[in-house]
Amino acid sequence: LDRRSESALAHVRARAKVGDRILFDWNADLFKRDKGEGEEDAIQVQVGGDVAVHVPYGSTVKVYAGGNVEVRDVRGSVTAYAGGDVQLQKVGTLVHASAGRAMDLDCETLAGDNLKLAAGRDLRLYIRDLDNVTVKVDDLGGYWEGVIGRGQRQIRLHAGGDVTLVTEQRVQASPPDQPL
């Protein structure tokens, strides 16, 4: 195959529509590209309602849903946006997440140095490799900050309900007006 026909065959799109309502819109590239083009290799799922995502184990996934999102057992990276709940279980790298309702995240590590997570209700976060992070929490109970390790990276957690941070690391409480 020449380069042009290979790229034409490599991109797949599936879309289901009833009247004006889009049930799902799914895009995927079947062939891996050179490293360095990572974002373009992501499997993108766009659904008007609820979605449970089942993809190959090491995939990079971006999910956009009007309802609830559930992603399990993906060792690659995940980005999830939902009008309802977001539930990520046994995920490799968390890139970003936002939920109109509750959020429950169980991930191995974080992407980048500055992550903001927002949920309309409760937010539960468990990151196994959570080290050298400043955590800034704004929830129903008020605002607080904590430092894990040297605090080189930053996580901002905003919730309309309660934020629960689950970690095996020691969290050093830090007043918001104290320089970090």
What features would you describe in this structure?
The protein has 180 residues and is mostly beta strands. Helix content is 4%, strand content 58%. The protein is built from one helix and 15 strands. The chain has one helix at residues 3-10; strands at residues 11-18, 21-29, 43-47, 51-53, 61-65, 69-82, 86-99, 103-110, 114-119, 123-127, 133-139, 142-148, 153-159, 163-166, 172-174. The chain has a 15-stranded mixed sheet that branches. β11 and β12 form a beta hairpin. The longest helix is centred in the N-terminal third of the chain and has 8 residues, at 3-10. The radius of gyration is 18 Å and the shape is globular. The protein starts with a helix and ends in a 6-residue tail after the last strand.
Give the structure's gist in a few sentences.
The chain has 180 residues and is mainly beta.
